[in-house]
Amino acid sequence: MTIAAESPWAAPEAPATTERPHWIDDWRPEDVEFWESKGKKVARRNLIFSIFSEHIGFSVWTMWSTLVLFLGPAYGITPAEKFTIVSVAAAAGSFLRLPYTFAVAKFGGRNWTIFSAGVLLVPTILTFFLLEPGIEYSTLLILAAVAGVGGGNFASSMANINVFYPARLKGRALGLNAAGGNLGVATIQIVGLIILATAGVGHPKMVVGIYIPFIVLSALFSAMYMDNITHATNEKGAMREVCKDSQTWIMSFLYIGTFGSFIGFGFAFGQVLLTQFPADFPTPRDAAEITFIGALIGSIARPIGGMLADKLGGALVTFWNFVGMASFAAIVYVASTQDSLTMFLFGFVGLFITSGIGNGSTYKMIPMIFRAKAQSAVAAGTDSAAADRHARRMSGALIGIAGAVGAFGGVLVNIAFRESFMRNGNGDAAYLSFLIFYGLCFAVTWFVYLRPSEKKLLGV
Predict the structure, then answer these.
(1) What is the CATH number of domain 17-234?
(2) pLDDT digits (tens, 9 = 90+) for 374-391
(3) What is the CA radius of gyration of the chain?
């Protein structure tokens, strides 16, 4: 989704509203006087409640990363089937990111946040009532797919906050918004750990039951404290045009390596520990004591990637980050072949950290790519305002596509685990495939963006 250019800079006393409550007609964040006097406070309020809603959405989307730990022998579900369950949840969430991207401009940021928060009650209530021993495997797959509605929240939340902030502050605001949402993965796993430690493995319904009142609060807070921006629009044809640009598919490929890894590992880590090291993790509680750490530090690392990209350049940070991911994947592979738990955990924590850093640096590359193209167009005689406008259109559309394609990487991660454990009884083949993929990613990053000729052209 991209946003139409802000209205002219003639500043009124306050953001003008229509007769409809919570709709703002006049919103000019690039006007410094308007921003400091009126806009900053409104934007901050919307950011806070957007983060809260997105955080709950991520927790609901990834709740099956925790719930599969509760599916003991009474459920008759094999480890391979558990990886399939989380793959379905990941796939549904990634698919919904594209329509959610456009929903903000069509229905209003506040309105869509109310809806997207409220609809989270569907998977939580269904799971609360249906999840019990004897449930059909097909029903579990349906419940996992419905939980995917939480995955779409990221796209709409980012699109909404993008409207509120000026260009000079978008990176920080979007970084906080993304990190706050990503932390929902760790939160649901901590909730699962608490339930396992107190009530035991026989009470998975408590995990989703705890979230029901928070979902209601999220929808209520959105209704009370958030706003719609009248002039937020979807740029017609931007998505179709950006799909013809090779940069779209290159950046989507790289985002599979970063966000796809983060969300895929977040879904799978607990089940991997139970399956790979059953002697060290004989119970779901033992695995749950570790699993949340990866998602937590990966979420915290995301803004660091953006800040490093600001200082050093997005492509350079992304390149060395993929080198790090390949190195940690190699450590995990060696640890698996040698049955070394300490080395295995070290490598996986490194993968979570670098996937988080890469989330920030790759997202930062997107506007820089089209800004460089705009500068080249201006040098060739294109009008500066038209070139900047085109760059914003392309950047916004690409962010929407990359977010959806990257999230699908979480599906590929879990499929790799499923096939590896099912065929070989261990994850070695999956770890080796990750190593090869990250090698391709840093090779592509260097070839497309860091070769002297390309670096001069794209400047990322």
Answers:
(1) 1.20.1250.20
(2) 888 888 888 887 777 777
(3) 22
